[in-house]
Amino acid sequence: MRFPTYRARRLRESTALRRLVQETRLAPSEFILPLFVVPGHDIRQEISSMPGQYHLSVDQTVEEAKSVVDHGIPAVLLFGLPEVKDPLGQEAYSPTGAVQQAVRALKQAVPTLIVITDVCLCEYTDHGHCGVVQGEHIVNDLTLELLQRTALSHVEAGADMVAPSDMMDGRVGAIRAFLDDKGYHTTPIMAYASKYASSFYGPFREAVQSAPQFGDRRSYQMDPANAREAVRETQLDIEEGADIVMVKPALPYLDVIARVRQITDLPLAAYNVSGEYAMIKAAARLGWLDEERAMLEALTSIKRAGADIIITYFAKDAVRLLAGGGV
Questions:
Q1: Does 37 reside within a domain?
Q2: In Å, what is the CA distance from 138 to each residue of 131, 133, 196, 205, 247?
């Protein structure tokens, strides 16, 4: 079919036609909103590198969660900050930690909301690494025991799902076996299966004060140059019992999302991380980008690459735009 027999523009002539033939659609039911929980009361403090995102005390986390439900967003992903950091990140698995308190409060106040908890130690350790440190070596197997305890403390508080993000070898299987042994057979695990050692985590590390105090995280997070390795990592997490697998970050790794999509029928999540969020926010403030259009374009590209679930700080903004017909 050659021009002028076929004219591709025929189906682009109006907004209604474009929407009718749109191949990739975003929906509020696909979003997860990350939240940062801190100790204290009546705290709602904006994070400087992430405009529109806040440190929230437990009471303010509940208020934010009510807004999340009102927007039709089904889930939140909780990150916590401790009162005190120490070498073993003990507040990560304390029943009185900020996340554990928030989980209990959320399940009481907004029981329909899916509460997912990040399982890692980096926010809680004084050295900023995601595992137990001996010298300058991050010890894999000793870390698994602390991750098991952290996951269990979240589930005992009422978490609907746990999401290990540490990238230690074997952590999905260790957590699965530990939860099963404690009777929590029905609690799903969303595995950070392909988590890269990315420069796009900078604003997040400011938010939770988790920058490593020595070295970096390249001995456990993935090399940004590797895509085949992401397939291996994902397959290992599936074999260990993951119910949902994730690629993080999202935008620089759309090809990885597409590859992972091809090798599994499990639900696939992608994390639109803090640096991706901050870039759009910063460029918009300088007048270099249309924030709303850039946001929806970025989220659509993640969905188009194959993600079923998008973890994004833009969740509420995106829902408001989609409710109004987009941009």
A1: yes
A2: 6, 5, 17, 18, 23
Q: CA–CA separation, 257 vs 170, rounded Å?
A: 22
Q: Indicate which residue of 195, 281, 303, 316 is catalytic.
A: 195
pTM of the predicted protein model: 0.96
Q: Which domain holds residue 155?
A: 25-323
If DSSP codes are grouped into helix, strand and coil, which group holds residue 185? coil
Check if the beta carbon of residue 140 is closer than 8 Å to that of residue 129: no
248 a catalytic residue: yes
Residue 7 lies in a domain: no
Measured CA to CA, the distance from residue 304 to residue 257 in angstroms comes to 10
Helices vs. strands in the chain: H and E counts, helices first: 11, 12
Contact between 124 and 90 under an 8 Å Cβ cutoff? The reply is yes
Residue 31 structure tokens: 């979003």
Catalytic residue among 85, 107, 248, 303: 248
> Is 162 inside any structural domain?
yes
- Into how many domains does the chain fold? 1
At 65, is the secondary structure helix, strand, or coil?
helix
Radius of gyration of the chain (CA): 20
* Separation of alpha carbons 131 and 289, rounded Å: 39
| CATH number of the domain bearing residue 301 | 3.20.20.70
> Which tens digit of pLDDT belongs to each residue from 268-323?
999 999 999 999 999 999 999 999 999 999 999 999 999 999 999 999 999 999 99
**Could you identify the residue written with the tokens 């690629």?**
247
* Residue 11: inside a domain: no
H or E element that contains 175: helix 171-181
182 among known catalytic residues: no
